[in-house]
Amino acid sequence: MCHVIVTCRSMLWTLLSIVVAFAELIAFMSADWLIGKAKPSSPEDVDNRTGGSQEPYHPTLGIYGRCTRIPHLQLSRRDTLCGPYAENFSEIASGFWQATAIFLAVGITILCAVAFVSVFTMCVQSIMKKSIFNVCGLLQGIAGLFLILGLILYPAGWGCQKAISYCGPYASAYKLGDCSLGWAFYTAIGGTVLTFICAVFSAQAEIATSSDKVQEEIEEGKNLICLL
């Protein structure tokens, strides 16, 4: 018989697992990993409201995507276009970034799988006498290691020609040159830290759902058990 067990610690772990998976996925897909040096506006870039030139803009570069300003087809102002610069994996700008993409993709895949499974832990707490919380926590720890490897290798690719075109000639491995780090990189770091927090917190979720209080309510014949 399925017993639906909901505790504060198990629900918090589930929510954190989902948030971490989405945060890492959004960061990976974003083009805002590097913010390039300011590009001056052309004489045609005139703000119709003030009559003055628009401020210089900052193009952004991601692992496989970029955002840059291009002339609009019909308007005199310029607009920003975002999209992948690499049509396939081999066209990613640096071998280090290719490795980063692989490690991040593996880590995010694991996190998404754990996030999916975590939703069902309210009803199923173990499989083959193994705690789902402990298994998921182990997987989150492994995913965190993959994410760390990807984030360590990513700055090594700052010396590629693509990065230099955005960050200037002084850009090199682990040196930003004229670029700055974008929100996607910080989100990926924050998500990695939360991944390990989730891995540790999974043990607390397992303890909460197997406590004496829960066992007492199961023995009383309750199918829905909510403990705050």
TrEMBL record:
Assigned GO CC terms: membrane
Any Pfam family the entry gives: L_HMGIC_fpl
Localisation per UniProt entry: Membrane
Sorted UniProt keywords: Fertilization, Membrane, Transmembrane, Transmembrane helix
Gene Ontology biological process terms, A to Z: single fertilization
Annotated Gene3D superfamilies: 1.20.140.150
Main location: membrane
Listed transmembrane segments: 12-35, 96-120, 132-154, 183-203
InterPro entries the record matches: LHFPL (IPR019372)
Keyword 4Fe-4S annotated: no
Topology in the lipid bilayer: Multi-pass membrane protein
Superkingdom classification of source: Eukaryota
Family recorded in the similarity comment: Belongs to the LHFP family.
Protein name: LHPL2 protein
Gene label: Lhfpl2
